Description:
5-stranded antiparallel beta sheet, 7-stranded mixed beta sheet
Amino acid sequence: xxxxxxxxxxxxxxPCETVEPVTEVFAxxxxxxxxxxxxxxxxxxxxPTRELVEGYFREAYDGDYGEVEASDDRQPVYxxxxxxxxxxxxxxxxxxxxxxxxxxxxxxxxxxxxxCSGVELSEQAAMRAAQKGITVLPPHVLExxxxxxxxxxxxxxxxxxxxxxxxxMLRLATTVLAPGGLVxxxxxxxxxxxxxxxxxxxxxxRYDQAFHWYLYTTKSxxxxxxxxxxxxxxxxxxxxxxxxxxxxxxxxxxxxxxxSRTLLWPIAQTVYxxxxxxxxxxxSFEIIAQRSGHER
Length: 296
């Protein structure tokens, strides 16, 4: 039986602003997750405030995850996004990576001939990126307007899962996009992760399915991107990381990611190509979109 939640006050309703009541999906001792019936987005209820999100990334994120993501475990992810981007846009041009971490993705882009900039809330991660020669913009400089219509490509690699408001973030990305530019998003696939809660519970790792504030399906992300005036250009599976992203449950995470890359990833790719790209079933997916000229 599903439970309807009708309170649509700020931080309770879905970012798509539907008037339909959300329904409960699952809960942990500290978090409650609901699903929007209109766009299919699963999110923490209530949604996090901007102050909470920014405080966490400034003060705690780097110690929890940042240094781990600075390892080469993320290289297959970055290379997957770069190869996807190269199908639709080639340098010269400018790339802005929102949530750039220590700059690993931008280093690959720079080697390919792109002019690269990043935005990062974590001061430690931003410092590491700057030490590598990456131009790191102050966190809120994009909101002031001087970078409007400036970047040829804006990327958000596993960023929309951990923002206060994904629609606001997508709208900002669209604002700084140059005419004809592309927004590229990599997001965790809810259609993969939610069914994995049961086997995750069997090995005591059930909280791995509640490590983000938002969990997307292709439908939910398409809906939010179209809401800010983006037209979907391409959608496909994204290659999983090679190893654990967090030291919290090292062997559980190691097992999960090992299974993903050795078994589930080949199956996901086979299904994807067999259906001519219509079925996206990997742990994460990538979307490329272009400004369509109108916004709701």
